[in-house]
Amino acid sequence: MTDPSTMLLKANLKTLKLPTVLAEYEKLAREAASRDESYDAYLLKLTELEVATRTANAVAARIRSAGFPMVKEFDTFDFTAMPSLPKQKALELARGEWVDQRTNVCLIGGSGTGKTHVAVAWGLSLCRLGKKVRFVTAASLVTELEEAQQQHRLDRMLSALDRLDLLIVDELGYLSFSRGGAELLFQVFADRYERRSLLITSNLPFSEWGSVFQGERMTAALLDRLTHRCEIFEMNGESYRFRESMKNKPTKTNTSKK
Question: What DSSP string describes 77-145?
Answer without folding.
Answer: S-GGG-TTS-HHHHHHHTT-HHHHTT-EEEEE--TTSSHHHHHHHHHHHHHHTT--EEEEEHHHHHHHH
